[in-house]
Every structure is written in structure tokens, then in C-alpha cells.
Design brief:
mainly alpha
Length: 78
């Protein structure tokens, strides 16, 4: 079983791999550890995404158009 396409832009290959490992370990004694590792990986990817978006916002010019384009992207409407 593999991860389907996810709409969250912060999900990396490492997160997808961790999700697959967790799913494959369901019902085993390793599941709990892999569940925690998956959660940690997704959280790490999310934090990196937040940091990159903060930097992107800081570098925007005073153009309202750029702000609205980024806003739309962040609301996952793109």
C-alpha cells in the first residue's frame, strides 16, 4: 500500500515513506514506534514549510497582487 496524492505542499518524500512504513506495520509491535517516527517526520516537514513561507512573505514587495497570489497558494486553492 502506498500514500495517495496529498494536497499538503509540505509532505516530502521522507514523510510519504514514513507513512508507508507505518501503514505496512499496522498490527505489529513496531507500529507504535513507526507511528511516532511518522508523526515526527511530518511535523519536521511542516515546520520547514512554515519557515520557508515566512521567508517568502518577508521578501514580498508592496504589491497587493503578489500578496494575494501567495495567500491563495497558502489556502491550498491553487
Amino acid at each position: 500500500m502506498s500514500a495517495k496524492n496529498l494536497s499538503h505542499p509540505w509532505i516530502s518524500k521522507a514523510s510519504r515513506l514514513a507513512m508507508d512504513k507505518k501503514r505496512n506495520a499496522e498490527g505489529t509491535i513496531e507500529f507504535s514506534a513507526l507511528q511516532r517516527a511518522c508523526s515526527d517526520q511530518v511535523h519536521e516537514d511542516y515546520q520547514k514549510y512554515i519557515q520557508s513561507m515566512k521567508q517568502k512573505v518577508d521578501t514580498l514587495s508592496n504589491s497587493p497582487k503578489q500578496w494575494w497570489e501567495l495567500s491563495t497558494q497558502l489556502m491550498l486553492k491553487s
